[in-house]
Amino acid sequence: MPPVRIDVEYEVARDRLFRNIERKGATAAHPELGHSVHVEVEGLESGRDYWYRFRAGDEISQTGRARTAPATGSTVDRVRFAVCGCSHYEEGLFTAYRRIAEEAFDFVIHTGDYIYEYRADGGQDGISVRQHRGNESYTLVDYRNRYAQYKSDANLIAAHASAPFVVSWDDHEVENNYAGDIDEKGTPPELFLLRRAAAYQAYYEHMPLRASAFPAGSQLRLHRRLRFGNLIDLSVLDTRQWRSDQACGDGNRTDCAAALDPARTMLGAEQEQWLFDNLATASARWTVLSQQVYSFARDMRASDPTGRFSMDKWDGYVPARDRLYSRLRETRAPNPIVLSGDVHQHFGADLKLDFSNPKSETIGAELTNTSISAGGDGSDVALNWDQIKGDNPHIRYHSNRRGYIACTATPESMRADFKVLDAVTRPDQPVRVGGTLVVEAGKAGLQT
Ligand SMILES: [Fe+2]
Asked: 8, 321, 376, 412: least CB-packed within 10 angstroms?
């Protein structure tokens, strides 16, 4: 793009053919923001479909479908949403995004790792069906080019055009397993924050975020609360920007005392208080927390005696998890459902006040989505699954295939269909239901 301001017109219609235009207007795409535009359209009708498109010069965009949320507190019978994440361009085709598009969800939750920052052929897992362009991303231009490459994928375009996205980031939008201002390479924090600022700006430019998320230096406020009638109260969390550094040097650890230090935080004090206030006022049927790393305990002692717990997850921030679960219990926030991603495996888990005691109270359920493509084709179950399942009876479903979760919320139940694809190294594979778990309203815990 030339470094000049470009006028962009937009239209929002009540029908796919734009016969009935609800709103139209003009805005400017500035080179300072990578020629992105962020239009916030006010005054639309609640709980209905709209279609939108853009025009710049002689170019008209494809048409996207949006769906407004039902009015806060209104009676809603049913909401369907997808939970997905971890779309590694090199390690697999984005077929799962195509299957999401075909389901025309009310909205799509993305739990992060929308891009991977690695250089060409830098996939962690040695799988490469296609290549990143360029080196590892460090600068604003690097990150912009990476988004441009990902967003040229026809399956991803189709997913965005099918439904609104509720996005949140994990680590790879910046750098693997970073924590706050600490990266994996021992870079001085003030230098890493320059990289983080570039990555956050590119994220803002390329994602459907409101002006309230406009980056301020190296910070960007990502946590936010969304309501869907009287059915869902959704808190979107950010478990990367404000967290303490991983305990005991990260990795998998046994007997890491620092993981039990109550001074360490996953959300940061301000976001934690904001969430705890949300929980005290949650009144919809389902209290949903969308975040990145799994919150349940995953004890791997049988497969790795010296690496029982992953320090990057809530297992490395045990008092922070205890504070969250205690708060869920004390506020009686209705029917808690925690969403997560990051690990490239599906899990459905009961959330226990004390994971070391199977008889301990169940205070909610967690649904962890596998990856869109990261890790390649995968396998029916992970290599360590047979060893770890006995030590983790709260885990009720597991798959090591690629895919997403299709959730259906009604006043009576939250149903999770774990969708899987048998291959992402061959194009256009079908999707199937690998397993289904249901939470009945008023009964904590997952039913098969
Ligand atoms: Fe990932």
From this structure: 412
Indicate the SS3 state at residue 38.
Answer: coil
Using DSSP, how many helices (H) and how many strands (E) does the chain show?
7, 20
211 exposure class (CB count in 10 Å sphere: 0-12, 13-18, 19+): exposed
One-letter amino acid of 99: R
Give the predicted TM-score (pTM) of the model. Answer: 0.98
Classify strands 49-56 and 64-67 as parallel, antiparallel or unpaired.
antiparallel
Spacing, Cα 344 to ligand 1 middle (Å): 6
Per the structure block, which two tokens stand in for 139? 């600068």
Q: How far is the CA of 39 from the centre of ligand 1 (A)?
A: 29
Cα-to-centroid distance, 295 and ligand 1 (Å)? 16
* Ligand 1: centre distance to CA 85 (Å): 7
Report the distance separating Cα 391 and Cα 358, nearest Å: 10
d(Cα 371, Cα 96) in Å, to the nearest integer?
9
What does the pLDDT look like over 232-242, one tens digit per residue?
Answer: 999 999 999 99
CB-proximal residues (5 Å) to ion ligand 1: 86, 113, 374
- Of 355, 240, 226, 242, give the one whose Cα is nearest residue 284: 226
Element (H or E) spanning 294, and its range?
Answer: none
**Separation of 286 CA from ligand 1 center, angstroms?**
27
Q: How far is the CA of 342 from the centre of ligand 1 (A)?
A: 5
Distance 377 CA to ligand 1 centre (A): 14
Place of tokens 């030590």: 391
Q: Which domains does the chain carry?
A: 1-68 (2.60.40.380), 74-440 (3.60.21.70)
Cα 241 to middle of ligand 1, angstroms: 16
Any idea which residue has 């979760």 for tokens? 405
User: How far is it, in rounded angstroms, from Cα 49 to Cα 46?
Assistant: 9
Partner residues linked to 118 by β-bridges: none
pLDDT tens figures, 349-394: 999 999 999 999 999 999 999 999 999 999 999 999 999 999 999 9
For CA atoms 224, 229, 233, 234, the dihedral sign is negative
In the chain, the amino acid numbered 35 is: H
Structure tokens at 215: 């980056």
Closest CA to 165 of 372, 322, 27: 372
Instruction: Count other C-beta atoms under 10 Å from residue 338's C-beta.
Output: 24
Residue 243 tokens, joined: 């967290």
Calculate how far, in angstroms, residue 196's C-alpha sits from the geometric centre of ligand 1. Answer: 18
